[in-house]
Structure formats: structure tokens, C-alpha cells
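If you are new to this repository, start here. Below is one unmodified record pulled from the training split, so you can see the exact layout before writing a loader.
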Amino acid sequence: MRLIPALFALFLAVLDARAGQPLIYLDDPGLMARLEAKGYGFAAVFGNGAAADLETLYREAPAYRQIVDAIAADVGDLRAEMKRGGRELHEVTDGNVGRVIDMRWLKAAASRFRLVGVVNRLDRRDFAALRAEQGCGEVRFIYRLAYAFKRKGRLIASRLPFNFNAVHTTRPDADGGCTGVAGRWSPMIDESVDAGWLAGGPLDRDGLAFKQLELNAQVVRFPSGQETEFGGQAAYLMRIFGIEGGTATERPLENTPDAERLIGDAALKARLAAWLRGNLAAIDLGVYDMPDEFLARKAISYSTFGSVRLANRPFTPLFGPEDFSGLDFSGLRLLRSPEALVERLDNGSCQGCHQAGSTAGFHFIGLDDETTSPLNRIEVGISPHLRAELPRRQAYVAAVAREREPDRFRPLSLAPPADWNGAVEYRPAGIAMPCMMPEQAGRFGQVWQCADGTVCTPVASASGVGVKLAQCLLPSGDKSGAMFSGHPCLAGTIASETKAPFNDRMTISGQFAAFDKYISRTGYTCRPPEIGVPAGLAYRGCDERDRNFAGFRPGKSMPNEICGLVGGKRFDLCVATNDVDQCLGGAVNRGNRQACSADHHCREDYMCQSLPAGTPGAAKVKDIGFCSPTYFIFQMRIDNHATPWRSEVRQE
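And here is the target side for that same chain:
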């Protein structure tokens, strides 16, 4: 009889081992291609799995055609609005003019939406429960716009910053629970995570039900030559579509208010304020669902400095602290003041979440396949926010697999990773990562610290916004010799245009004292935003040791800077036409940048770019990249790509 308890204990141990490291996301390009071959491609969302390109899909799938036409109308409206505000937009560009997405990409034979990621969102079951919906959270398939065609015998291929997220609800276990669903995300020791295992397990079609298609797409970009102190700007369109057979319908954006309509309707705004006051505990937890009557069906988010821009804070113009005076914040986990409540609401909106802790408005960029030019590849395919989220989501899924109650709390999207096995304890924020200034931190019950050797320093502020963009930076007067290329060197203020955020204006207000202390002693220069580097960029040219990556040792701590690539107009032209030989021969220069990896993210408005495998000495720095301004990376721009419908590529 003693055997049964022993076997049961062994079973629990095996279950714990399985549930200890559940899969939270997948992004291997080869695996994604094999899943597409098994029927998980973008066209399958529209019931047309045979459509290999967007020209065919647009012609044969009515729902896709309706979505593209709706996006075209949105882009047309934004274009007209910007023209009234004095900002002209052009598809084909030459010089310092505004750029707008060429809608032909969405219906071209050379284009497709490539599967770049699969995301386990079992934790989203908390939101389904708010509407009494059955299910075990969601599975999300991330598709990114890509193209490939040949010209003069050369393959020209790249991606564009245009994503669809196909959301599927996960059906519960036979008993209505989620234990089995959670367990299927943890492979046994003898199981390989391949397309067959996924299709027969967590991605089994019988266990998934399509819910909606979410859009996040760069549709406008202003180059740094126009935005000389911002270092460039971009606008992103956010939408949600339902699909019923051949019909696509607009759906409201989650927890994102229609601010313009609410400002014009005092009674509606009063009802929203009452709802917010009555749901304070849920908002504090981060699990709340605003009624549809208050919600927008379209949003435009803006970068650069997206986390502080008024346009990305839709609740701030609606409510002030006085609207929530008298609320009892005692006993709450995060919120300690009316100001914190508004900040929490802003952060939970689509614009707020996708511009705080993100990579230029994206959380899932996806890795490159072999068709992408080695000079146009990224090293890290997820945002700092998603990276910080992974421990929370893993702990959540593991708890459900063990039939334990998970921690349902959601932190702010700019928070660093935390330990979720017990009381939540944030890890110190790394260098150039977001932090809270004391006046902001005092509003919240949960805060985090900057890592040793750094100080929370404001980088930008915006009129109408009560918080500052602050990062963990080197302190003033630091004598450790820790200055590195890529460190911000300029601070500024943003004048917010409430009704025309594309006309926001940045004014550089000063140079960081920390940088002043170094410039005469070390030879670092402060590169200005007008060349496309937001908040300026400390820079030092590469010497011979840098070129040989002398400071990098496997298994040792990673230096802050690395001898990466420095581009320019000729470089852009090479990448656009995939003429790698020409680029390497005459258009690529080397320069020091901040080093980055899967565990060391770049600061806001920068992302981790890969060193080409052919770079001399690259084996020493395997899995390490360099931080580039986001729009220096060709695949993160909508403009100046070589196209199958024109032979020339014009440069700014």
C-alpha cells in the first residue's frame, strides 16, 4: 500500500518538472515556416489556406479585402488630417518629406504576411472570466508583412513594420478546467518542440477557436531631417477586426477610451468616471474590462519618446486627480493616489501599452529568415516589456498546471522583470532602462530601483503629461570610466499638440552633466538627434582592439559597448537592393554602439541589430548585437524599399 503514495508523489514531481518551464512564446523562423506548411499561415485565418501571396488573398478572400480597404480609408483620413495640419505625405519620397505606407504592399504578388511568432496567453483567461466566457486564455499567432522578388537576377527581400495578431481562444478541458491545457505547454523530457508536437498539442485546431484579428502597423514616418530634435517620428495604426465567414467587422479596442467622443459628451464621461470609481480594485490588479460604450474603434500611437507623449495617454485629457478624490486607496497593491490611477489607465490602453517598454510600438517583431539581408537583421525579436513579462507568465501557467491559484496581478508595462515565485520582487533596472522619478514613484505601492552605478535620470518631458521619461543612467561626476557609446547625452521637452500630435515639437534643453564630465577626458562626442539618434548618442570611434572585440570573453560579463555598424544613405540603398557586396565594399563603416542581447535590451527608440556573420571576429560575440536607432534598421521603416512596381529607390 505504500507504493501508491510513492507513485503519487512521483507523479507530482514529474508534473512540477513539466510545469516548471512552460513554453510562453516561440519565434524560431524555421519552426514558424513549418507551422505555416501545416496550415497555420495567415491565409488560413480567412479560410483560404491556398493563397500564398497577398494579391491572391485580396482577390479571393472578401474579409481580407474589406480589412485592407478599411486600413486604406484610415490611412487616407490620417493623410488628409496631417495635410490640414501642414504635413504632406508621400509614398515615393525624395528629400526630407513625410512618408506614408504604400497600400500596394497589402495586395501585391511579392508580399505575404509571414508567421513570426506564437504566444501562449493562458493568463488571458482572467479577462474572459470578466465577461463570463468559457476558455483557458488565448493563443496568438503573430504575422508580419514581408516581401521577396527578383530584379536583375538578385533576390530582394525584407520585412516592414506592419503586424497582424490572430487571436484564438483556447477551449477548456473536458471538466471545464485549464489544468490539462496548461500542462500541454510543457514538453516531456523525451519530446521535441517541433511543428508536429505543437499541432498535436497546444496548437491542436480542435482546441482553438478564432476570436479576432488585431492590427498594429506603422503607417507614417517623418525622417530625422524633418524632426531634427526628435530624431524622427512615426505613427502607428491600431485596429481590431472580427471575421465571420466572408465579412470583416470593426471591434472596440480593449480599455482604450474614445477620448474625443467622451470629451464632447458630459453624460457619457460621467458614466465612465463612475465605472472607474466602482472598479478600482480590478484596475489596481490590472484585470479590468471597460464596457464597449466608452471604447474607441481606432487608435494612432506615436513615437519617438512614445512612453511620455500625450497622444499615447488617452485618459490624461479626460480626468484629473480631482475626479477621483476621496477614493480609498488603502489595501491596494499598486495604486496609492488618483494620479497613479490615471497613469495605470493610460498604461493599460492600446497606445499606452504599445509605447511603454516597447520597441517603437511593437512587442513582438520576430526574427529574420535566411532571405533577409545580413545587414538588415535584428538580434532580439521581442520588446523589453515582453522580456520582463516572461517570468510572470511562466509562473502563471505553471501554477495552473499544478492546480494552484496564480498571481493575477499585472505590473506596469515599463517595469523590469520580477521574481513571481512568492512575493513579487522586482529586479533592479539595467542601464538605460525605464525608471520612476521620486515624485512619480511616490504615487505607487510597488516600485523598483536602478542597478548599482546608475541613477534615475529624466530624459524627456511633455506638456500636459505629469510624468517624465526617465532612464537608469550614469550619475553626474561619475569617475569610474563607465561611459559608453550609445549612452544618451541630451535631454529635452516636448510641446504637445492635443489635436494634432504629429505636430508635437521637441526642444533640446541641455546636455547631461554625466556626459560633460567625460567629453574632455575620454574623447566621446555627443551625436545630435538630427542624424536620427533620439536623445543624442554618446559616440567613440572603433580602434583596433574594438574591431577585434578584445573586451568580450565568453561566460564573462558583457561590456557596455561593441564595435558595430554605422550606416548612411549609401548603406540604405545597398540594403534596399540587397547588394551586400557593394555595401561591404564601400558603404559600411564601423563605430561603437551600446552592446545588447536577449538579456540586455536597448533603451527606448533603439533596438538590437545583428552583426553580419562575416564580420571578422564575430564568433567572439555570438548572440550579441548592437543598439541602433529603430529607424536606422531598414526593415523597421515603411519607406524607400525597392518595390516590384518601380525600378528606382530614392533616398532622403
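Two things worth knowing about this chain: The chain is about 25% helix and 25% strand. The first helix runs from residue 3 to 20.
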